[in-house]
Write a structure and sequence with these properties.
Layout: E1 2-6, E2 17-20, H1 31-34, E3 38-39, H2 47-53, H3 60-72, H4 76-86, E4 90-94, H5 103-111
Parallel strand pairs: 1-4, 2-3, 2-4
Helix pairs in contact: 3-5
Length: about 110
């Protein structure tokens, strides 16, 4: 199972292996509070794409297309797939405010297919 969860939400045992998939460390979060097993900066959207997107809901569909195109040529995706294969439950942890408009959702969908 691949879950997604905000880094600001309380970690739980059900999360399994927790991977931060943001390029930048989330504000106001200590390493202890985050309870991460890994931090894969390389699977996050490029700084250019992140800046263009700016978490604007009306851009989310186009963002998804552009982000998936970046991920097609990103070797870190294979690293992430290996981690997921080794852990029955994996949670992609992100810092964005919206659970409906964030890159972790796009990444989760890509990995589940």
């Amino acid at each position: 199972m691949i879950y997604i969860k905000r880094v600001y939400d309380e970690p739980s045992k059900a999360d399994g292996y927790r991977i931060l998939v943001d390029r930048l460390w989330p504000r106001g979060i200590t390493k202890e509070r985050a309870q991460l097993d890994a931090w894969l900066k390389a699977v996050a959207p490029s700084p250019e794409l992140r800046t263009w997107f700016n978490h604007e809901a009306e851009k989310f569909e186009e963002f998804g297309h552009r982000y998936r195109a970046e991920l097609e040529h990103n070797p870190a995706v294979e690293e992430l797939r290996k981690i997921i294969q080794e852990h029955p439950a994996t949670t992609l942890v992100y810092a964005a405010k919206s659970p409906q408009v964030n890159h972790a959702l796009v990444l989760q969908q890509l990995l589940q297919h």
